[in-house]
Amino acid sequence: MLAMSTLPGLSMGQLDFFDYTITFDDTLEIKNLFIDTVSNPNNTWQVGIPQKTIFTDAYSAPNVIVTDTANPYPVNDTSVFIISNTSEGGFVYYHTVILAGQYFVNSDTLSDYGMMEFSPDNGITWVDLLNDSIETIFGYWHWDSYLTGLEKPVLTGNSNGWKEFWVHLAELGPVFDIQLGDTVLYRFTFISDSIQTGKDGLMFDDLHFEDWVEGTHEIQNDKLISIAPNPVSDNLAIQRPLESGREWVQVFDCNGRLLFDNEDFTGESIDVGLFRNGLYYLRYANGDFFSVKKFIVAH
By the 8 A CB rule, do 261 and 119 touch? Predict the structure, then answer.
């Protein structure tokens, strides 16, 4: 059994973040990984070199996490592993929280399948990231298909090779009131039925986690400004205090990429006519206060 511990947050200047990848090739990397073989002695998840019929290579050699490194997955089995992280600013200020990685599946279609879940409260509540109905492209969370072409993972059947996934989770922060230092969990499950198919199962590699935000030393006041219209197609107007002093306006896309940055903003609006359709965040700072507003560009 591998022990589970928390990952300490890092702080650099105005950034409060973590950004790391588990390749399963270094024992220090997997300190946040927990494979429960006590309450479930038949748990088939193993870290190692895949030596199976279809699963013969890692995405980044040599190791992966896989439903048994050598044998087909068993019948009537539910196997789970969990990654534990400590919440940083991305959830609190709904800025940037990302789960990404690579998967390879070889299973009996629909009957045997994998799951990805997220817990905002150290395992009390679980959100099914693949199937829960509250998923939308403009809220709560979304799979990065319209920006990069990556599709939501299909953890059943045959992927015919390694597939990449990328999901944005920051907006679950205000939904579940996730605070700095809260323990958040990521649970990966594989479930099989009573029919033995002799297939290889499921494996993951290069699991990537991000949780970060800018300017956390300031005080958030979301009544500081208002924006309109929303959705917007061309000019986004910013209504703010009459005597504002020096103003700093930034716009980020939902990947956290900075698209607009003016540290001495004096205008009344921002031209977003060249932005692609989608969800964006406007950050307005004035002295020791800042406000974050989300808006949708829809041409």
Answer: no
